[in-house]
């Protein structure tokens, strides 16, 4: 059991959760005031004068256009802009694709990236709707990797109960109490408890407009509160869908336990940052 726990703590830094119950990279807390008044991606999303946006050109697939939200995630947005402008993403790949969940890319497999990590930025108006652009984090730290939510299935949270989440919080805290507070086991279990605590907070603050949009466009609300959402796709959904439908095989980058590696490389030719005029 201990070996399994430690493996979870030390797992691949790119891992993000497939479901709430199996996350090994949840956020210990939000770094941005979630009550801040930011329009975010909960309403109608369109490019307006002065907006920053990214055009991601993917070889043999086309362009995905993403509106960026520097007000909601200032550190994350600027980090992505700087990396894109430096050409960092040119030639990188989408190395992990999971249908009805997300497509993940931006990993530097050379291990030579010298990018300072930074904490998670969350806001109640930035949600994991279909097309959301987010950072894949490692135990609460963002760096270069991103993912785009590709789940189009309707999510109905009109009568969602948080009772199960409460049980998970209590369960992980009870496990943690069995270990010394300086131990890795204690850190792991409290980390998981905090994941559910963050998720509960975001579910409880899900207003009617957010619920309606999840029901209309789909997404992965189980990730809310624990990952930085800093952009929203506005064009190129057909490209995202094509990427999400590729054939995949066992992914060594995920410890060989997940069938998510595209059989044919999906290459990012370039990412251009623009100002909408």
Automatic annotation (TrEMBL):
Residues 59-273 form the PPIase cyclophilin-type domain. This is Peptidyl-prolyl cis-trans isomerase. Keywords: Isomerase, Rotamase, Signal. CDD domains: cyclophilin. It holds the Pfam family Pro_isomerase. Belongs to the cyclophilin-type PPIase family. SUPFAM superfamilies: Cyclophilin-like. Gene3D superfamilies: Cyclophilin-like. PPIases accelerate the folding of proteins. It catalyzes the cis-trans isomerization of proline imidic peptide bonds in oligopeptides. Its EC number is 5.2.1.8. It comes from [Eubacterium] siraeum DSM 15702. PROSITE patterns: CSA_PPIASE_2 (PS50072), PROKAR_LIPOPROTEIN (PS51257). InterPro entries: Cyclophilin-like_dom_sf, Cyclophilin-type_PPIase_dom, Cyclophilin_A-like. It catalyses: [protein]-peptidylproline (omega=180) = [protein]-peptidylproline (omega=0). It is an enzyme of class 5 (isomerase). GO terms for molecular function: peptidyl-prolyl cis-trans isomerase activity. Residues 1-26 form the signal peptide. The keyword Isomerase applies.
């Amino acid at each position: 059991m201990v070996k399994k726990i430690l493996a979870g703590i030390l797992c691949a830094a790119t891992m993000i959760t497939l479901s709430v119950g199996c996350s090994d990279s949840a956020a210990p807390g939000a770094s941005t005031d979630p009550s801040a008044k930011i329009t975010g991606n909960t309403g109608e999303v369109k490019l307006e004068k002065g907006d920053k946006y990214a055009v991601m050109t993917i070889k043999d697939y086309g362009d995905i256009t993403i509106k960026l939200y520097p007000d909601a995630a200032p550190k994350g947005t600027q980090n992505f802009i700087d990396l894109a402008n430096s050409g960092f993403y040119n030639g990188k790949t989408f190395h992990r694709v999971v249908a009805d969940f997300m497509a993940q890319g931006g990993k530097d497999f050379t291990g030579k990236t010298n990018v300072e990590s930074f904490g998670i930025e969350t806001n109640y108006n930035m949600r994991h709707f279909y097309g959301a652009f987010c950072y894949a984090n490692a135990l609460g730290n963002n760096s270069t990797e991103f993912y785009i939510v590709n789940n189009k299935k309707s999510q109905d949270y009109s009568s969602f109960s948080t009772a199960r989440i409460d049980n998970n919080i209590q369960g992980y805290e009870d496990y943690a109490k069995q270990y010394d507070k300086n131990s890795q086991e204690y850190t792991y279990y409290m980390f998981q408890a905090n994941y559910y605590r963050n998720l509960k907070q975001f579910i409880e603050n899900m207003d009617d407009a957010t619920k309606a949009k999840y029901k209309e466009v789909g997404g992965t609300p189980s990730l809310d509160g624990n990952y930085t959402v800093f952009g929203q796709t506005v064009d190129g959904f057909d490209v995202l869908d094509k990427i999400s439908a590729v054939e995949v095989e066992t992914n060594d980058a995920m410890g060989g336990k997940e069938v998510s590696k595209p059989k044919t490389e999906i290459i990012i030719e370039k990412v251009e940052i623009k100002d909408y005029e």
